[in-house]
Amino acid sequence: MAAAASEPATTRPVRVWMDGCFDMVHFGHANALRQAKKMGDVLVVGVHSDDAISKYKGPPVWTEQERYKMIRAIKWVDEVVEDAPYFPTPEQLDTYGCDFCVHGDDISTTVDGEDCYSALKNGGRYRMCSRTQGISTTDLVGRMLLMTRDHHLDNTNGAIDNQEFAELHEKCPWTGVSQFIASTQKILEFSSGIERKPNDKAVYIPGSFDLFHCGHLDFLERARQEGDYVIIGLHGDAVVNWYKGCNHPIMNIHERVLTLLACKYVSEVVIDAPYKITEEMMEQLSIDMVCHGKPGSPVPPCKDGGDPYAVPKALWKFKLLDSGNDLTTTILIDRIIRNRISYRTRNQRKESRELEMYKEVYGE
Question: Transmembrane stretches, by residue range (predicted)?
Fold first, then answer.
């Protein structure tokens, strides 16, 4: 009697764990998550609570609910674990069926010098990915703190002085960042590469999308309900500075492009998009609908005094959407300013400890 043919062995999906604070989620976080996803099949992301971050690192800028939502919207993330322990263990990875943990190749200790991943390192379940040069939450907080000098507080209310300005620019090899260098390769890595289908309805959304946050995210999720293919018309730095003033944008156009491309609701980004939407632009991009924020949100006129949405309005291809979220970039900046001393102290503690550890490791 012939032996029964053996069935092919089923390969179990490799489940990867990555955790973090993910405060003010930016393209550096997204790039780490992208790299982690490439190491396996399923990416499980643990996000620390506000209490844990405050205890081991300092007060977060975004609330835990905001951070949970933002991480769920990154296109490489499959599962999110809320209130993840600050010190992961092999037992924790086993609970979620994860094979190993991935972390960036920068510092992985608390401000008190405790290695958050010692248990996983000792157990051989720790891998590293490359840290994204040119961006960090510490740096973004610093950029906003510097705005207090001239633009958000007058000198009588404690605007920063030259000494504070210098202190905010103290850098270490890990936390400190250099100017982000954009490349076509990085854009390709972040792009989905999915082409628009012939019958897809395209929704066009212009804006600055500076310090991409939950207000933006909820609006994009709402806009996605209006069509199949969401195109962001990202305004250039000079245009954003023209209509927002002060030191805006906080993030330059290259940083904003990558942050948007990491969002699962975004299909395509038009870089340095014209402020005024023309009929030629509508035809070239095959735009079916142009969307803007809820009624009452400001729309600065063009430099010639005209309405930037005049053409889509005339074509009956314009719609105001209310996402139900009132969060704005200005509100986020106000959070930083109101808690300036706490964030300044947090940054200094983190940078000081990192510099000490860098010298211990490299003897410099």
Answer: none
Give the Cα separation of 328 and 297 in Å (integer): 11
If one compares 361 and 337, the residue with the highest pLDDT of the two is 337
Contact 318, 290 (CB under 8 A): yes
From the list 132, 133, 136, 165, the residue with the least C-alpha distance to 150 is 165
pTM here is 0.81
List the domain boundaries for the chain: 15-129, 137-181+331-362, 184-320
Strand order of the β-sheet with 268-271 is 268-271, 229-234, 202-207, 289-292, 318-320
Stated length of the chain: 364
| Structure tokens belonging to residue 280 | 């030629």
Q: Is the pLDDT of residue 247 over 90?
A: no
Lowest mean pLDDT among 48-52, 153-157, 239-243, 258-262: 153-157
Write the pLDDT tens digit of every residue in 195-223. Answer: 899 999 999 999 999 999 999 999 999 99
pLDDT value of residue 127 = 95
Fold exhibited by the domain 15-129:
Rossmann fold (3.40.50)
Is 116 in contact with 109 (CB distance < 8 Å)? yes
- Mean pLDDT over 24-43 rounds to 94
What are the beta bridge partners of residue 319? 291
Q: How far is the first Cα of the chain from the last one, in angstroms, to the nearest whole number?
A: 74
Fold held by 184-320: Rossmann fold (3.40.50)
Tokens 């014209």, located at residue: 274
Residues 6+ apart with CB under 8 A from 259: 26, 27, 30, 209, 212, 251
Nearest to 170 by CA among 355, 362, 361, 358: 355
